[in-house]
Amino acid sequence: MMRSKVKVGALSALLIGTLVGAGGFLSTGAASAASVPGAVITSSSADVDHWVVPQTQQGGDYWTPERMQGAIPGEVLVQDNIVAGAIGTVAAGATSLVAPQEADPEQSPTASRISPVSHIGKVFFTLGGTDYVCSGNSVSAVNENTVVTAGHCVNEGPGAFASRLTFVPAYENGSAPFGQWNATELYAPTQWTNSGDISYDTGFAVVSSLTGMSLSDTVGASGVTFNQSRGLTYTAYGYPAAAPFDGETLQSCYGTATPDPYGQSQSQGIPCNMTGGSSGGPWMIGSGSTGLQNSVNSFGYNNIADTMFGPYWGSVIENTYVAASA
């Protein structure tokens, strides 16, 4: 029997029973993608969809405080087209990582408010003439200007890519201490852009510099890792906006990952009650915001309370990261 998923965008009244989308410490010693074992990938083109955002569709001055307040959760964009029993295995290769970092919360499904983290923020974008909001994170990259979020926050899955996508790091109560970073290129796995396969619900945005300094130089950038063991313990971050949250402050959850109980995806779930708007927020291995990122808030089931699911980062998502980060 198919269970419905609920996207976690910004204002959904549903908990993470459907697809989720959402949105510290400066990272140190960030490594380039070239230092990642297996980062030189020659077969990635079939797995990666790339969109160069025309200048006329970039954020510019579009995102006023009023438009940010009016943006709705990106979760409403997720298409539930997963058929039970038709889920394939997510390809996994050699474990790879960029820049280990350190860590610190407690195991509980209840999200707790924390102070803004410089490299974690909100992602605003437009699709089909409607404004949406998710969460995202700055990650280590050769170009030093790469943001990761949920796939449904950059592409309809399947369908069009977003326009006017902008990243607002360390957002809190309308404040944008590091400004707005407009996307010039968007990347997502073809498994997402062509068929909306929720097991690949991850997207990347290359953003433009505001002042001549790169994003990572300005706010820091998390290390990333792929093809890790399943069942790890994570700290997840995001900006949930549906009650009891309002999307104005950063929240975090902590817990150990378990498989999708319905087998409708290769994603894993952790104890977490974050709601719409948290889509795309990072999952850090261990405790604290300085860990290696290894997934994003993606979806929840409406009949499984207090559980957030995130895609397994295998070789396909690694390929997408390498393409974007270069």
From TrEMBL:
Entry keywords, A to Z: Hydrolase, Protease, Signal
Signal sequence region: 1-33
Record-level Gene Ontology MF annotations: serine-type endopeptidase activity
GO terms, biological process: proteolysis
Span of domain Peptidase S1: 124-302
SUPFAM superfamilies with a match to the protein in the record: Trypsin-like serine proteases
Record-linked InterPro entries: Glutamyl_endopeptidase, Peptidase_S1_PA, Peptidase_S1_PA_chymotrypsin, Trypsin_dom, TRYPSIN_HIS
Pfam families (UniProt xref): Trypsin
PANTHER family per record: PEPTIDASE S1 DOMAIN-CONTAINING PROTEIN, SERINE PROTEASE
Official protein name in the record: Trypsin-like serine protease
Species annotation: Cryobacterium lyxosi
Lineage: Bacteria, Bacillati, Actinomycetota, Actinomycetes, Micrococcales
